[in-house]
Structure formats: structure tokens, C-alpha cells
Amino acid sequence: MPRTAERTWTTDLLGEPYEQTTLEFAPDEEGPVVATVVRRRAEFPTTRAVLYVHGYADYFFQTHLADFWIDQGYHFYAIDLRKNGRSLRDHQTIAFCRNLGEYAADLDAAQRLIAEDGLDTLVINAHSTGGLIAPLWAHARRERRGGRGLVDALILNSPFLDLPVPAAMRTVSDSAIGVIGQRRPMTIIPSLYRTPYMESISSAHYGEWDHDQVWKPIVGVPLRAGWLRAILAAQRRVHAGLDVPCPVLVASSAASIVTRGWDEALFAADAVLDVRQMNRWAAGLGRLVTVQRITGGMHDLALSKKPARDAYFEAMQRWIWAYGPKEENL
Q1: What digits encode the pLDDT tens for the residues 16-58?
Q2: Which terminus of the chain, N or C, has fewer Cβ atoms within 10 Å?
Q3: β-strand partners of 209
Q4: Are 123 and 249 in contact (CB under 8 A)?
Q5: Percent helix / strand / coil, the chain, rounded to 5
Q6: E strands of the chain, at which residues?
Q7: pLDDT at position 175, please?
Q8: What pTM, to 2 d.p., does this model score?
Q9: What are phi and psi of 13, to 5 degrees?
Q10: Strand, helix or coil at 251?
């Protein structure tokens, strides 16, 4: 549980109007643990908030995404989960966890913080691994608020619902990783394939986005057996079916690409995950699920080239107006 001392907000590294606060948790085997919440308040009164949850070895820097949500009439919050981004400490292994359930404490604390700000309507917008963590948390908290759950709408941007490998390889991986991940969790697992995805988004290479190359390394972060074991266990739970009570939007690129070398096609497809798998498992997430494919989208739809990025934002806008919380319910 985070400490209950009086909340302190300071100007975030993004500058005004962004603020940040630190949530402190009980130490784990590596030492002290924190999460960081970034906040940007709407310019007019509302009790609606959106919480952005990043992907693997990532952090919040997409201010244009915050612009979008502010324009929709939401206060914007983002969380850098423990051992990621603003929350990464020198004694920690970046992005490592043994169980995705560890992040429930981070999301619980962020939700309470948002409620403390007087906001009672919550939309989660989560990307990739965050898109695996968020529905599991929403499912686990589904009985709160009289069965409405803690989340009023869930938007998943290319969620990590399955490994991008053939089914036969997945079966072998489950068994081997289960053993290694339990006995030697810090063992580095050789990547199944190298993707130049980060080169396609980083302005240091072929992309258009500036980001911290420690918190979001262009060369990627080694996959460790304990983390992969946690991912596989979480994906098995998704595959068995969840019961998220709020409406869910699963957005992805219209196509995937597998390449080891540079290819201009990386600008128009998901180079990290298999979009067919996302569509396969999407329906089992909850009671009302919408699937949206974005032509020309990249793995992080919010970092896609402008036509696809605009299409993603337009799809979110249409969907949130159709299925999201309404003003009359506030």
C-alpha cells in the first residue's frame, strides 16, 4: 500500500501544465518500489478522468495524446508503473516483475488518487503490455461500485494478448519458461526475433518521436524468464475469458509485419505483435467489446504516421461518444 502522507505535486519533466506525484510501496527483493502519476487538469469543470497505462519498458511522453483527451472533456492522468520510466530506480531491473498482479497495487493507488481529486468517472487507455495489465485489473475489480467496476470504459491500443509465435511454439514456451522463470527468474531469454520497430518511431533513426533512450531504449530491453512467465500466466487468464463489465475498445493496426532489417513497410504495420491474435482474443475480454482496425497503424497507434494516428484518434472519439460515460451520468 502507498503511504498516506499528504499528497505533493511538482512540475513534471514535460513542463507546465503537467504535474507529477510519487506513490511509494513496500520494498520487494530489489529494494524500495515506487510508481509515478503524471497529471494534466482539464481547463473547465468535469468529474471525468482518463488514465493512460504504457507498455513494456516504456513511459508517458505522448503529450498529443493528452491533448486529445483534454479536448474530449477529461482530466488526463498517466502512470509510469513500477520499475518503468519516472519510477525506475538505480537498484532496479527495468520493467521486471514476477507476476502482473504486482501492478494492481499501482492501479489501485492511481484510482484512489483520481478519486481524491474529486473525479468519479474513469476511462483507462492502455497500450501493449499495459493493454494486458488493464483488463485483468478491471476484471479483478468488477464487483466494486455495486457491480459496475472501477472502470467506466476501457480502450486498448494494440494489447499484448498473446505471444507473436505459432501455437505449437507457444505450447513449448509455456512449459520451458514456466520452469526457468520460477527457478531462475532473472535468466535472459534470447529474443524470438529482432524487430526494428523502435528505429521506426525514434527521431534518432527513421521516426519522428523524441523519447528518453534509457527509459525507452532503442535497442530494446532483454526479456527475462520471470517476466515472460508472468506474461504467459496472464495471457492464459485472458484466453480463458474475462468479465470486464464496462465497454471495451480493442484497436490495432490492420496488418502485422515481421522483418529483421529496415523496411519502409514498418511505418504502416504492427512490427511487434500479431494483430490477428488480438482480434482472436478480444471478444473474451468483457460483456461489450468493439474491435477497430486502423489501416496504416503501427504498434503504438498513437505514434503512427499522421493519417493513421488521426484515424485512431477519430475512432476513439466516435467510440467514447457512443459507449463512454455521458455527461448526464456525472
Answers
A1: 999 999 999 999 999 999 999 999 999 899 999 999 999 999 9
A2: N
A3: 202
A4: no
A5: 35, 20, 40
A6: 10-11, 19-28, 31-40, 48-53, 75-80, 121-127, 153-157, 188-189, 223-224, 248-253, 289-294
A7: 73
A8: 0.95
A9: -60, -20
A10: strand
